[in-house]
Every structure is written in C-alpha cells, then in structure tokens.
Design brief:
Blueprint (H helix, E strand, L loop, with lengths): L1 H55 L5 H22 L7 H15 L1 H9 L5 H22 L5 H26 L6 H24 L2 H11 L2 H14 L7 H90 L16 H59 L3 H27 L6 E3 L3 E2 H9 L8 E3 L6 E2 L1 H20 L7 E8 L2 E7 L7 H12 L12 H12 L3 E6 L5 E8 L3 E2 L19 E3 L4
Parallel strand pairs: 3-5
Antiparallel strand pairs: 1-10, 2-4, 4-9, 5-6, 6-8, 7-8
C-alpha cells in the first residue's frame, strides 16, 4: 500500500503540473475560438445599435441598417461556429455560451420591433445592451487562468474594454436632442465609464497602460468629456458622433493590442511550467524506484514474521478461545498455553506478547462470566424454589378458606387471590427455567390437550378475554404437561398485553401430520415483517440469557421450553391484523384419546386428580 500510494502520488503530481502547462496553452485556443470572435461580434452589434438609433432619429436610411445587420449576422455565425469547438471546456463556460446564444436569438425580435415602429430609442439601445452584457460575461468566464499576473491583467483589460462599450452606448444615446429618461441613463453610463477607466489605469502594468494613458490624455478625449457634460446639462453639442467614433476606434485598437500581448505572455509561462513538471516527475520517479527496492527488501522479512503472527492469532481466535469457552460452559477447568512468535522485529514481538496477554484476559473474563452466570442461576433457582414452597402453602390455605367461605363476595375475592397465586407460581417457574433447571410441577398421566389449553388460559391475568375453542380428544404426555401449559400461558399473556382490552384472544388446536398444533391468535396491531423474522429466529435458536435484556423474559422462557421438548413455535400475521403464535407439539408427546369406560362403571370411582406438585428440596 505505501508503494502504491507513492506511485499514485507521483502520477498525481505529474498530472497536476502538466495540466497547469496545458491549461496555459489552452488560453491561446480559448482566445482564438471564443474571445476574439466575441470581440468582433461585440463591435458589429455596437455599430448596429448606433445605426438603429440613427434610424429612429431619422438621420440615416434603411439601407445602411440592412447592410450593418448583414455584417452582424456574419459575425454571429462565425462566433457560433468557433465557440462550438471550445464551449465544452467547462460547465461554467458552456452555460455562459448558451446564455449568449439565447441573447443572440433575440436580435431578430429587436429588429422587428424597430422596423415596425414599436420600440423607442431608449428601449432599442437597452435591448442591444443586454446582448453585449452577456458577451462580456463570457469574457470574464473564459479569462480564468492559473497564472495570477496574467489573470489580473486580463481582468483589467476586459474592464477597460467594457468602458469602451459604455462609450459606445453614450454615442448611441447622445445623438441629437435627448429627453429626460435618456439624459438620466446617459449620466449614469458616463459616470460608470469614467470610474472604470480611472480604476483600470492604476492596475495595468506599463506596457498595457501607456497606450490607454495616451488616449485619455489626448485632446479628442478631453473634447469628448466636455461634450458629455453638455449633454448631461441638457445641451446638444455639435460633432458628437465624429468625436466619439474616432475615440471608440482608438480604444478598440488599444484593447485588441493589450489582449494579443497577454495571449503571447501565456505561452512562455506554459513552457516553464512544463519543464518544471518534467523535472519534478523525473525526481519523484527516481525516489519511487529507490523506495520500491528498499520496501521490497524490508517487506519480505516483515511479511514472513507477520504471517506467522497472523496464523497464531487465527488459531487463538478460531480454535483455542472457542474451545476454552465451550469447556467453561460445561464447568470444566482449562489451561491456556502462552502465544509465542519468533521475530527479529521488536514491534512484532511486542504484538505477540500483547496477544498472549489478551488471550489470558479473555479466558479470565470467560471464567468470570461463567461463574457469574452460574451464580445468577443459583440465585434464580433458590428464590424460585422458596417462592414455590410458599405459593404451594398459600394455595392449600386458600383452598381451605374457599371451602369454609359462605359470603359470595368473600368467595369471589378468594378466587381472585387463588388466580393471582397461580400467576405468581408461573413466574416462579420462569425463574427456574432461566436458571437452567426444571420446574417441579408435573403430571403422572396424560392430560387432554383441551385441559392443557384451559389450564394455560387460567394462568394469565386477563383470562376473561381468552376463548378456548373445542378440540379433538388427543392427550399430552404427563411429563411435558407443565412445560406446555407454561409455554402456552406465556403466549396467551403476551397476546392479551399487546391487543386492545375489548378484543378476544382465541386459542384453538387440532391434530397435525406430525403431532398436535395449538394456535394463539390476538387482534392487536401486529408486528412488522422484520420483527417477526427476528422473533422467529430467537424462538428457533434460543440465545444465551442476557440479564440486560429483561424486556424479553417471556420470549426467552418460551424458546427454552420449546427447545427442551423439541417443540416448534412460530409467529405469523393474523387475518385480523394481529399476530398468531403456532405451537407444534411433536407426535411422540401426543397420545390417542382415552377410551370411553363402560356405562356401568361410570361414577363408581372418584375421578383422579391429574396434577401433583413436587416440592423444592
């Protein structure tokens, strides 16, 4: 990577330096294809503006206007042809050239308004002004160059050229008597022109300034300024057209000489930049070659040592640590050999020692985590067993109180307490499941699956909303009855919590090809597809219990119980907009319905109570 970076850097330096030279050389191309045709087009539009103003003042005939329009169209066609080859030089230039095309397309409408007598002198002059302003905007865009002195002088020359454009506007407005609006515009233009000339003369270098100073100091220029003052004062000076025409031509010649001189200055500068680029590129290439030779020698040695360190690190991360963690989860003791990598480089040797330290720290952290998990499990189990014992005694006492109660209200309160005790027992069993142990509740004989569903519904708080539909007579093996009741109760409680209080929760069941399937359906707001996929993944592959993830205890208990008995739990959307939980119990846990007893044997023996409670040790 360092070598590649050096080569890329060398290429960038070479390209940037060479591009500067090419940029300077393109200055001449831009002058030939854009700026020079634009100057020629500006001159023709200025003359057309002048003869149009003369036509509106009835001091010239239509033939002169037609002749000048032909010259303007020829200059426009020449500009369009040449500019099309260089306008794609940049996005800014392309945008400005397109703006010029748009303004040039307006010339025909401007001419039509003049010929039809729909446009006055001031409106016609301003229409031509907007076209020329766009052309000068193009000059400013294409005058950008990386050489600062040339750019500064080019900018000033453009502004001096614009001063000449302002003089041409004065020339068109000051023909004959002017009205108040024309006089205000004339005064503004004259002030702007004088400001541009005074500012530009101070910024031009001597070679470009001297011709401009000679013009400004000439008697003709001074006479023209006096005429300007007369027009501003409301007068009509004689000889205005001839005086300004001569000055306009002189300013145009000085501007073209200055622009040509700047164009000639760019070429030697480009050659110097190109020579510097070759020298810099050659020096950088020599340094790159020396660096490559040295880096290859050092890189081979470092590559071998780093390769050995990499293999050792991969062995630690992919084999040793997973093996150690697996043993720790089983409660076995482990020993980790130190990581040793032979190296002649101090840094690589230090990295090897750091990996060895990290390995030992990781093992110690895994041991601490295993001990913490085991301790938390013992705490959960002890608390749950104690709670189970107390709850069992409480249920016995409540049953006795129910048998002795005669007041209906007291009996109803006792039933509520009994239901609350049943829920508390389920939560205690949840703690036992989280600890990794097995709850003590069990049955000695198979229990009808309908009774299993009813028992699960009785263990939730909002049991009045639960509707258990009739089911077939299959029975559930007694060894799994307690866990299945707990599993379905968790799903029913989740359905009641996450659905509106006025909606029912339906529990139905039916035989399937591979066992028996329960469905717990709510009519809540449902879950997004991403949530369903995440929950189904957790139910299919129960993760390690995380103490920080206490909001999903029910989900963890369900996944643990399902994994313990190979039960498959799946969540999906309900047709009512809620969620349906499907519990598929394997066929090895499902027994056929109990055969009916003979009629004469009915009620000869009391029904056996199917549930037994195993007390905690």
């Amino acid at each position: 990577m360092p070598l590649t970076s050096m080569v890329v850097l060398w290429g960038v330096i070479t390209a940037v330096t060479a591009s500067e030279s090419l940029e300077l050389r393109q200055y001449k191309t831009v002058w030939t294809n854009l700026r020079l045709p634009a100057y020629k087009l500006i001159g023709e539009i200025q003359r057309e503006r002048l003869v149009s103003a003369q036509l509106l003042r009835n001091v010239t005939d239509e033939s002169a206007v037609a002749t000048q329009r032909t010259k303007t169209d020829a200059a426009r066609d020449s500009f369009s042809k040449l500019s099309s080859t260089s306008k794609d030089r940049s996005e800014e230039i392309r945008t400005q050239v397109d703006a010029v095309y748009t303004q040039l397309d307006r010339l025909d409408s401007v001419r039509g308004e003049i010929d039809a007598g729909l446009s006055d002198r001031l409106h016609s002059v301003e229409a031509y002004n907007s076209v020329i302003d766009t052309l000068y905007g193009l000059h400013r865009k294409v005058a950008l160059i990386d050489d600062i002195p040339i750019y500064e002088q080019s900018r000033v020359v453009i502004e001096m050229g614009y001063a000449r454009e302002l003089l041409s506007r004065e020339q068109a407005i000051g023909l004959g008597t002017v009205n108040a609006a024309e006089r205000r515009l004339f005064t503004q233009i004259a002030g702007n022109r004088r400001f541009l000339i005074d500012q530009g003369l101070g910024e031009l270098d001597p070679a470009l300034r001297d011709p401009q100073v000679a013009l400004v100091s000439s008697p003709a220029y001074q006479r023209m300024r006096m005429m300007e003052d007369q027009i501003i004062a409301g007068g009509t000076p004689l000889g205005w057209l001839s005086t300004t025409e001569g000055l306009s031509k002189s300013f145009h010649e000085a501007q073209m000489k200055a622009s040509t001189l700047l164009n000639e200055r760019a070429e030697p500068v480009a050659d110097q930049v190109l020579s510097r680029a070759f020298l810099l590129a050659g020096t950088a290439l020599a340094l790159v070659i020396v660096s490559i030779a040295f880096s290859l020698r050092m890189g081979n040695r470092l590559s071998r040592e780093l390769g050995a360190l990499r293999l050792a690190a991969l062995e630690v991360s992919q084999e040793r640590l997973p093996h150690v963690v697996a043993k720790l989860r089983k409660g076995e003791k482990v020993e980790m050999p130190e990581l040793s990598v032979a190296s002649s480089t101090v840094e690589i040797d230090d990295v090897g020692k750091a990996f060895s330290t990290v390995q030992q720290t990781a093992v110690e952290a895994a041991v601490g985590q295993a001990q913490l998990s085991e301790g938390v499990g013992h705490v959960f189990r002890n608390l749950a067993r104690r709670s189970q014992t107390l709850l069992h005694r409480q249920r016995i006492q409540l049953a006795d109180m129910q048998n002795r109660a005669t007041d209906p209200e007291q009996l109803d309160d006792l039933f509520k307490l009994d239901h609350l005790t049943t829920r508390m027992r389920r939560h205690a069993e949840g703690l036992i499941i989280l600890s990794g142990a097995t709850p003590g509740r069990g049955w000695s004989r198979p229990v009808p699956l309908l009774d299993v569903a009813r028992g699960a519904a009785a263990e939730v708080e909002d049991y009045q909303r639960v509707v258990v539909e009739p089911m077939s007579g299959q029975r559930l093996a007694g060894t799994v009855v307690g866990d299945v009741i707990h599993l379905i109760a968790e799903l029913i409680e989740n359905a009641t919590v996450y659905s509106p209080a006025h909606t029912p929760v339906i529990v139905r069941g039916e035989a399937a090809a591979r066992g028996f399937a329960f469905e717990v359906e709510d009519r809540g707001f449902g879950m997004e597809a991403e949530e369903l996929a995440e929950y189904n993944e957790r139910l299919a592959s129960p993760p390690e219990f995380d103490l920080a993830d206490s909001d999903r205890l029910g989900l963890f208990v369900v996944s643990r119980l399902a994994a313990r008995h190979d039960i498959r739990v799946t969540l999906r959307g309900s047709p009512y907009g809620g969620t349906t939980a499907i519990v598929l119990i394997p066929e090895e846990h499902v027994a056929e319905p109990e055969p009916e007893a003979p009629a004469k044997a009915v009620q000869k023996e009391p029904a056996a109570r199917p549930m037994r409670v195993v007390r905690s040790d």
